[in-house]
Amino acid sequence: MLVDNHNRTINYLRLAVTDRCNLRCNYCMPEEGINFAKNDKLFTIDELVRLSSLMVSQGIDKIRITGGEPFVRKDLMVLLRNLASLTGLKDISVTTNATLIGPYIDELKELGIKNINVSMDAINRETFERITRRNHYDVVYNNMIRLITEGFNVRINFIALDGQNIEDIIPMLELTKHYNVSVRFLEEMPFNGGSKEFQSIKWDFRAILAHIKEAHPGYYKLQSPKTSTSINYKIPGFKGTFGVIPSFSRTFCGSCNRLRISATGDVITCLYAKASANLRDIMRADDVEANIKSAILQAVGSRAKTGFEAQEKYKDVFSNSMTSIGG
Ligand code: SAM
């Protein structure tokens, strides 16, 4: 079992498989993209399988595959097949922009991978295409609906962006009227590859909730797991649920159970912190098992208590893009 220096059990790994993405969401990176890693700096699939297995032996029982866009990796399903047969791993989930997932939906179902987070920051086509800087609305919308209707446990992640998509919050919630889906509204964070800087946000979780209350005054709070980052609600009579994630307000650090490994092998113990080790280099040297374990123990043993403490320590962390951190 992995327990950090603040007595928090770490059982959840967010594993990025690439930093590349086929969208250019304007709150995530500049139009021209970022300095993407060369292929030999990324883990190979064999390395990712080995790493995952080591992490599970250390106490990780939930792995979320993220990126970049995970499905830009043509060999992603090889990794997922291997993970699906890993004893001790109870939950495999994927975070995706849903542009490329279509051909893999049947196999995901066969593998029992049912938890899919779809990032979709607008239900209006023009708004969506303006934010993502690409014309992929139809494929995203259709794949999202297909995942829901085929019985996947779908959560839609919607970042509330001042001046960009606030008028889409209520229409996006309409999805939960008709479908058993969870729409989660996230606060924007300043991890955008230097596109814009800010110290505060207008649309924090309280403002989002107040906005929703105007349209749906009857919504009520649901019980959520202790380690959940989202505070969850239901509108009476609606099939699905909605939630808010205070990712900038950082009200959930006390129960954080997560560890991140970026596509290039950096171990990140908090979104607002910098890497504490690089596992790719360790993976390509001698005595892999012992050295990976000791790097993980070291990282977990020196975590910041909160995202604010981490930000204070690593002042220039905001030059990062979420596509290289892994979201
Ligand atoms: N490509 C996948 C996707 O679109 O979901 C996975 C990677 S993406 C970096 C993971 C998540 O990070 C997405 O839900 C995205 O909206 C979120 N994200 C990216 N930049 C962000 C920012 N500056 N603030 C808050 N969330 C951000």
Automatic annotation (TrEMBL):
UniProt xrefs under Pfam families: Mob_synth_C, Radical_SAM
Record bears the keyword 4Fe-4S: yes
EC id: 4.1.99.22
Tree of life domain: Bacteria
Catalytically driven reaction(s): GTP + AH2 + S-adenosyl-L-methionine = (8S)-3',8-cyclo-7,8-dihydroguanosine 5'-triphosphate + 5'-deoxyadenosine + L-methionine + A + H(+)
Radical SAM core domain boundaries: 5-219
Protein name (Swiss-Prot/TrEMBL): GTP 3',8-cyclase
Annotated source species: Maribacter sedimenticola
